[in-house]
Amino acid sequence: MAHPLFDKHKPTLDAALGALRTRGFWSPYLEIPSPKVYGETAAADGKAAFDAWLGKRFELDQPGITGWAAPERSPFGVELGVSYPVCDAQALIDAATATMPAWRKLGPEGRVGVCLEVLARINARSFEMSHAVMLTTGQGWVMAFQAGGPHAQDRALEAVTTAWREMAEVPPEATWEKPQGKNPPLVMRKQFEIVGRGVALVIGCGTFPTWNTYPGLFAALATGNPVIVKPHPNAILPAAISVKIIREVLAENGIDPNVVTLAVSEDPAVTQRLATHPAVTTIDFTGSNAFGQWLMDNARQATLYAEMAGVNTVMIESTDNYKGLLRNMAFTLSLYSGQMCTTTQAILVPAAGISTPEGQVPFDQVAADLGAAIDKFLSDPATALGVLGAVQSEATLRRIESAPSLGKVVLASRALENPEFPKANVRTPLLLSCDAADEAAWMEERFGPISFVVKVADAAAGVKLAERVVREKGAITLGLYSTNADVVDDMTEASLRAGVALSLNLTSGVFVNQSAGFSDYHATGANPAANASYTDAAFIANRFRVVQRRWHV
Known about the structure:
With 553 residues, the protein is α/β, with parallel strands linked by helices. Helix content is 42%, strand content 20%. It is built from 20 helices and 21 strands. A 7-stranded mixed sheet has the order 14-17-18-11-10-19-20, sandwiched between helices. It has a 5-stranded parallel sheet with strand order 7-6-5-8-9, with helices on both faces. The chain has a 3-stranded antiparallel sheet with strand order 3-4-21, with no helix packed on it. Strand 10 (313-316), helix 13 (322-334) and strand 11 (346-350) form a beta-alpha-beta unit. It is globular and about 80 Å long.
């Protein structure tokens, strides 16, 4: 008999399976904060729920509590003051390991049902989560609601659905009958059980604490693995709320809540101890190349799914909609102050300029027009503050300040005042131009609102260079503007060889740094920056094993 939570949410699961097959638009979680869907009082209730966390201890009845820590500092300058339990790493490992037998016995339907119930409850608290995401990451409120709420939930549901699809391919039992000629056949009964590999460690980032954490968290849970969530020290609250909801659902269903625990620490050594523990068999990580490389070199007992730094590139060769191109790129470079793993950094433009319906536009004019488009887009203060949000880390602020020396300044970065949050660190994009030969300047990720218009010899050289950037530096996104079919074909082949998602001629309401759940294959694992595609079967299936038993009938 199916688990009651599986039956309760089966219509959602079936619809998600259909969406995975067709890859069209679908989402069960509305991205618009509508009171008709979330409730007339949802906005006020969510804000009140968020406010209730501030200045208090975030109680989690976890094992091995050794103290309390409140490391978060809001990019908006708001005093958060939330204290979280600090737990002994070995105690968390031991508790997680102890939950594995019962979590395994619950079976795929039970685990998937629990995950779907958790997601329904997280969705109901999207307003609360949006404030937690906004005030810890610096995202604007609309982006925090969408990316931190429904879009993150889409990613989680996609991981759960893919896990169910892969596990459903394994029959629970079979009768094996081998003919023996005139003699009676050999008959055996066989049973197949899906078994999690071990403790999963999910290491969150400071900019997208739900969107980048949920896929690994829910993929591991659904496939039978207990999870330790290690959030970034500056973005703990969204992860803590998520963990608390999961633990509540587990406890309500008679399951040890230590299937999921929260590991809070500002000490990298704690993360290193967890990551290298023999009981940890999978690690999901989003963050810097330095720590990602450390995990590759040292956490050899675990399978690592990593999304790391890269140099995302767009080449502009020609266009039939120059104004639309500029508007699209202006939004792309401004959104969340460029603090996205998908934001374009290098914009390759041929030395002779680009072809448009209005004629040839020289290289320097392309750079100047893009700078002017950004300036125009951000000329309305309300739009600027909503789109830019705030700069999440001091390191990014320092990069913005030092970057002008790396090229010719096309558009200088400016500090903006936010009347609602006077202490917010708000910066407009910095746009530089340089020659392709200045690789030390532009061919290295400079996280934040820093981009380069890079002069290349011609379109063929640009395609070749774009491929080399992806191969050597990694990238999550690649873009091309061209009306030339041969150039499009060449860049398409380059993207396939290098293993990176390609966007062509985006001039309206879709942007190169966005990806859609249930449709786009995000971070497909084919280049140095991308190894965390939650829609790939490999991302899911390698998290469990099938153990069989057989006997003669």
